[in-house]
Design a protein that fits this description.
The complex is a heterodimer. Chain A is of the alpha/beta class. Chain A has eight helices and nine strands. In chain A, about 35% of the residues lie in helices and about 20% in strands. In chain A, strand 8, helix 7 and strand 9 form a beta-alpha-beta unit. The chains are: A alpha/beta, B alpha+beta.
Amino acid sequence: MSVEKSTKTARGTVQCENTNLNLLKANDYVADIIRKKMTESNTLLVNITSSAGSGKTTLMQKTAQRLSKKLNMAVMVGDLETERDAIRIRETGIQALQIVTGGICHIEAQMVHQVLDQFDLDNIDLLFIENVGNLVCPASFDLGEDYRVTLMATTEGDDKPKKYPRMFLTSDMMLVSKSDLLPYLPFSVEAVTKDAREVNHDLEVIQISSLTDEGIEAWCDWLLDKVKHKSASMVQ
Amino acid sequence: MEFDKEKLDCLNAIHVRVGVLSNIEPRLLHNAYSAFHLSNPSYSCVDLHIESLGIKIECEHCGHITDVENYRFLCEKCNIPSKNIIQGEEMLIHKVEFKD
């Protein structure tokens, strides 16, 4: 029995198309689809990132209490396991959907895209993505958001912006959270702001406490302004 | 880009470029690649080359290119902040090499 020999040969060195194959290209493609959907429905999409335990869910609850009468808002919240955070957010009376990542340490655009149909986007002004608590991997994944907001808790230490630069580089706002604990901690708001702005000169900073309400009004005003701005740009 | 099995059998090396800002640790990627060989021994003769790239910014005002050190995104010539990153965010398969 003779085996037909292939005439194909692979020789030498091959450069991929355009030389470089971006390993996040698929994610970025889906992120653009999400961005387009958000534009069509005139929904502001805000990606909330931070380390675990910095107060993201408590801030979502606080924000819902303040803004739910002024805006239609909803939250999709990512965690490796459990529905606990979504349950906490729903207790404030707003829609919340849990994305269980099943061990993945970040949310990817495909995950967001898969659940978007569960929201009535035409009737939502403000949609939050509460990302998985992690300052590393979530920084690399564009989720089609209008703004990225990173919480930096006073309990974490003020050295994080230079340790996790990409997260601060890609953020629009840094919320210094748990400010009520400042009197008890060796944490300098000035130092953390200086480091963060060396990484990202345009970064806005607000000091907040979800317990004492410090900075919450400024945070909500910032959100209202961004929602208004997006609506205005749609009209134009 | 896709390769058929015949081509994959001739694979000699994969060249990857990772920027400092990609959050990829080359040593860990090498370890993961070694672990991959345990279940895919046919690829154990395929070398993985990882090129780590530092951060460079190009100033929007004066055009000067600065090597960013200590994550200070500042033009070294005119001292103006810049986020115009031209190198350092890569997560790329740069080149695929086949045996002669």
